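Bumping with the actual sequence this time:
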Amino acid sequence: MKIVVPIIAPAIGAISIISFLWSWNEFMFPYLTLNSPDLYPVTVGLYQFVGDSGIEWGPMAASGLIAMLPGLLFFIFAQRYIVAGLTAGAIKG
């Protein structure tokens, strides 16, 4: 544990960050499978601002900004793990 965990910690951090961002931005699968608007993720909820009469740009922009914040904050606080995890296998040594 004292040898393996410090070596794989950046890789686990990078994988968890990338997985979180991919799942946070998922649109197509929840849109096709979920029936209840109560279960929609943020991305599908943003699509509800597009209607037959037009697009409600103001509420969509405000909701998009709020929906972007968790992923952005998560990335900012874990950026060093992404860089360390992605470059760990690129250097010899």
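The tokens above came from a reply further down the thread. The radius of gyration is 18 Å.
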